[in-house]
Amino acid sequence: MQHATPAAPAVRETLERLLASETFGRSERARKLLRYLVEREQAGEADRLKGFSIAMDVFGKDGDFDSSTDAVVRVQAGRLRELLQHYFANEGVAEPVRIAIPRGGYVPSYELNAIRLPVGQEPVALAQVVADLPGSPEDPALAAPPVASMASAVAGPGPSLARHLHFFWGAMALVILMLGVLILRQGSGALLASSDPAAVVETEGATSSIASPTAEALPLVYIAVKATGPEAGRVAASLRAGLAGFDTIDFIGRDADSKRDPSTDPTSFVFDVLPGPMAGDVTLELQSVATGRVLLSRNLTVADSAPGTVEDRIAAILSSTIPAAGPLYSYIEQNGIQTGLTRCLILNDRYYLDQSTKTHEAAYRCLENLASQGAKSSLVYSELASLHLEAATDHYAYPPDATVEQAMSFAHRAIQMGPTSPYAHRAYGYLYSRLGNPEEAVRWMRKAYQLNPYDLSMAAAYGYGLIFAGKYAEGTPILTRAVETFSGHPTWWDYGLFAGQFMLGDMDKAAIASESLRTTAMKSHYLAARLIGAKAAGREQLAAKLLDELTTKFPKFAADPRAAFAERKYPADLTERLVEALRAAGLGNAS
Description:
Elements: H1 8-19, H2 28-42, H3 51-57, H4 72-89, E1 97-100, E2 109-112, H5 123-131, H6 150-154, H7 161-186, H8 189-192, E3 198-203, E4 206-211, E5 220-225, H9 230-243, E6 250-251, E7 268-275, E8 282-288, E9 294-300, H10 310-321, H11 327-334, H12 340-353, H13 357-372, H14 378-393, H15 404-417, H16 422-434, H17 438-451, H18 456-467, H19 472-485, H20 491-504, H21 507-515, H22 524-536, H23 540-553, H24 555-559, H25 561-567, H26 572-584
């Protein structure tokens, strides 16, 4: 039976709904694999969809990948086929386009959905049934299902000629109606391109919000290797491995310049691996696909790209570029091309750089709005978990009546939706750390670090967790490396480093770390750290000022700092040393 080939926009819309579905919500690997396969095939590169390239581009394998000993591609492709079958048999039963990955290869196939008419059933009646399915147009006249073959619509034992003609014209009407549905759906692109978390559709007498699949879209990042030699090979391999682990982007390891319309890729970016100015040097450039604007350019010398060194160099570049604090997200914000999720991640990053009531509420409300629209991204829930816990423990006004239980519920959902998400694992670790379970905190944060060792924020979280589990000698060097490598880090890194250096007895380094804790909205424990650091550095005038500020702004803390540290579940020895240092710094009631 011949199947009509769906138009590219229809395939793309189906892909986005599928990736945002409940079926795929818990399998980030499957989402990344499916997006990669469909987008590469749609770009005319189906001949490159081989196991080796998939292993490198999607799963971060290096040039030594051997499919005979590593079955990751075959296993994940098999899992993807199962999820596709489940989706189109359940959630996606009314999708106008079906996507499949035929066995024996990795090239996607597409066909218009054929919903058969039972013998004797009138087209109008079936149209009403489809109109009742989720996502169907409200007008039953536009809700008729697609028909891929007129033979399937007129099948039946021994019908009369008149009946044949009746169903023939009924099938023709259905085909015409289905084309109208596709046009209407494809015409919704302006709504889906909105940066709001939900598009608003106005109907006669009612206005309703519908979740937009693109509200959770992340920047697409590609690699284009334009240099040769072992140095370029090592840089490209580390770059692939690093990009594949970041939750804040969708990574597809192919050249974005060929066979793509730049006007349709406002949030697509490409890492060019180029020859450097000297023999053996490699230049990395990150640029916008749409405008060609270079956002970052780094030259790596032969020494930088050497085995054992190149990983750290790439980690530093990616950690300062890919997260919400980096130039990639800044470009998106400056050009007004945010999606709902990228806007929330930018607000979330601002909170951690400036921990105030205002920045906390802005980030929380943004993520909460996405969650209320049925968000499928684990990032939404992992970041809500941390913000909710801080609302409960640091007594923020919003959300009212925040509870630890609700924070744990968000973290659990994040893990369910992103079982390989470093952010989800880090959120769980952070919650356990604040709840006084250092063993579980370290276990979850170690996993986050292992899932993406190229993200220095995961290294920082792991080091921080170790320090507040009392493992100062183990955690401080990890956190030190992260702080020294990434200058644009949030303030909690500096506080963790202060605590680690303080407990290791290096008061010079502890004082330096404490000086970085100057934020717009000061916290009691940050002021306490600055007071201890100023006293240790012999800066008596500053120490006196900080002591007065701490006593005035945080009288409850000043009266009983031990209780405050105990409430935050600090290790006993850290609590004792901090209380002693505060007493020595003039906090007379420290006990």
